[in-house]
Specification:
By secondary structure, the protein is mostly helical. The chain has 11 helices and 3 strands.
Length: 242
């Protein structure tokens, strides 16, 4: 069941968004009373607000710097939220959930701007939760079994995921998804995302240059390797698998 706009914004202010619908409902029970004392009245009237990071800006150092987060989260992600609010305020999408907006605008060329900004709000919120301090390592349980059976094991998964991430020309994303109950590795360009194609996202790596350039310059392969080995939040991916 989609979240109401009021529930969605309350959850974002809790600072630990889990971006799939089922996870958002599960986490809502734990964060329903959370509030952000720095939010002003004007911001509260906006359809969407910038979610807090699920960890401190410096929590992923030395693999991802606080400076990167200050730009990537504080400027890029915020810009997508602000732009989306401007585009939907006063329209029939103003009271829709983020997922409803993405689905309604995904195949409508007249709503390309709405799709790009709504998808990037979703993508970035999801990406923050795909990482954690002391991440990486190995998945366990059903997720590990599915990676073995569907993708040829963890080493093969890493190799293929890295290939998808490094061969995405220009800006985009590499994803681990569930498609019809089977795990797949896909890549999408620009703001595109699995939700627009009936797939369920489990894990993603942002390969837009602003995601890694301050820390890795043009060494995208090094960034992707670090993401997999040191940052990946397998607990989050396992919860998405459900």
């Amino acid at each position: 069941m989609p979240l109401t706009k009021r529930e969605f914004n309350k959850f974002l202010l809790g600072g630990a968004l889990l971006a799939t619908s089922g996870l958002m409902e599960e986490s809502m029970a734990q964060t329903a009373t959370a509030s952000n004392p720095t939010t002003n009245k004007k911001e509260e009237t906006m359809p969407f607000t910038l979610p807090n990071l699920p960890y401190a800006e410096n929590a992923l150092e030395p693999y991802m710097s606080a400076k990167t987060f200050s730009f990537h989260h504080g400027k890029h992600h915020k810009a997508y939220v602000d732009n989306l609010n401007k585009l939907i305020t006063g329209t029939d999408m103003e009271k829709a959930t983020l997922e409803e907006i993405i689905k309604a605008s995904a195949k409508d060329s007249t709503k390309q701007g709405i799709f790009n900004n709504s998808a990037q709000v979703w993508n970035h919120t999801f990406f923050w939760n795909c990482m954690k301090p002391n991440g990486g390592g190995k998945p366990s349980g059903d997720l590990a079994k599915k990676i073995d059976s569907d993708l040829g094991g963890l080493d093969k998964f890493k190799e293929d995921f890295k290939t998808a991430a490094t061969t995405q020309f220009g800006s985009g994303w590499a994803w681990l998804v569930s498609d019809g109950g089977k795990l797949k590795i896909i890549k999408t360009a620009n703001a595109d995302l699995p939700l627009a194609h009936g797939q369920k996202a489990l894990l993603t790596c942002d390969v837009w240059e602003h995601a890694y350039y301050l820390d890795y310059q043009n060494r995208r392969p090094d960034f992707v390797t670090t993401f997999l080995d040191k940052l990946a939040n397998w607990d989050f991916a396992a919860k998405n698998l459900g």
